[in-house]
Amino acid sequence: MEPMTTEGHLLHALRRFHEVAPPQHVRQLQMRHEIQSLQFWRATIGECLATFFLTFLVCAAVVPWGGATGAAVALTAGFVATTLNHCFGHVSGGYMNPAVTLAFVTLRKMTVFRGALYIVAQCGGAIAGAALLY
């Protein structure tokens, strides 16, 4: 048996990738059921709330109220992210960041539709959190 070339490995990987991907009609059916599910909308609202609280609390820690140090801001960011992940992780995954959501969509761990709505909800939550603090 001869060793495969790089092109051979790439073609083999692409064939396997297309075998795993569901057909177009199955993806449309999944999206229709996804829109109608209560869990989907709970998760989207959960992402909005989690990003709202993350933005509000971390930005509030940075505002110079009374001499907050860099260590206090870092601890605040860590504790807030951990707490929100525990609160919203089981509902929506606790991504709280459009870049993380985009990575999950790219890796096909999340549907494009769910990812797009998560990103809209995350941006809306971040804007609302910053506006409330302002």
UniProtKB/TrEMBL annotation:
The keyword Ligase does not apply. Its main location: membrane. Belongs to the MIP/aquaporin (TC 1.A.8) family. Pfam families: MIP (PF00230). The gene is LOC106815250. This is Neurogenic protein big brain-like. Keywords: Membrane, Transmembrane, Transmembrane helix, Transport. It is found in: Membrane. PANTHER family: AQUAPORIN TRANSPORTER, NEUROGENIC PROTEIN BIG BRAIN. Gene3D superfamilies: Glycerol uptake facilitator protein. It comes from Priapulus caudatus. The keyword Kinase does not apply. The chain crosses the membrane at residues 40-65, 71-91, 112-133. It is a multi-pass membrane protein.
